[in-house]
Design goal:
- The chain has 117 residues and is α+β, with helices and mostly antiparallel strands.
- The protein has one domain (2-115): Hotdog Thioesterase (Thiol Ester Dehydrase, Chain A).
- It contains three helices and five strands, in the order βαααββββ.
- The chain has a five-stranded antiparallel sheet, with helices on one face.
- The chain is elongated and about 45 Å long.
Length: 117
């Protein structure tokens, strides 16, 4: 099993927006995010998936062992949230992946990765 906890910050989200080129205002502007029904700015789903992929790679013995990864974005992550990312062997070269916030709510679901040992 491999696990990592990450607390998301406004700075981290802004840095990811710049690095990825995804400057959608729902990730950068609280007022805009609220105007479209969100609680405020939210973290990029792909930022979360990237962290989960790192955890999966560690559990698989390295990124070169990963063959496929699947995930469903299920919940919002806002600045200040702490998410626990976990990868556990499920047998047959598959990892079960989870991402749960500090309230026990899944933010990524139906997540798995196939790997070759």
């Amino acid at each position: 099993m491999s696990e990592r906890k990450a607390t998301f910050t406004r700075e981290q989200i802004a840095e990811y927006a710049e690095a990825s080129g995804d400057r959608n205002p729902i990730h950068l502007d609280d007022d805009f995010a609220r105007s479209v029904g969100l609680p405020g700015l939210i973290a990029h789903g792909m930022l979360q998936m990237g962290i989960l992929a790192t955890v999966a790679a560690q559990a698989a013995g390295g990124s070169d062992h990963l063959r496929r990864m699947s995930v469903r974005f299920a919940g919002m992550v806002v600045p200040g949230d702490t998410v626990t990312f976990r990868a556990e062997p499920a047998g047959g070269g598959t990892l079960e992946l989870t991402a749960v916030n500090q309230k026990g709510e899944a933010v990524l679901t139906k997540a798995s990765a196939d790997y070759e040992p």
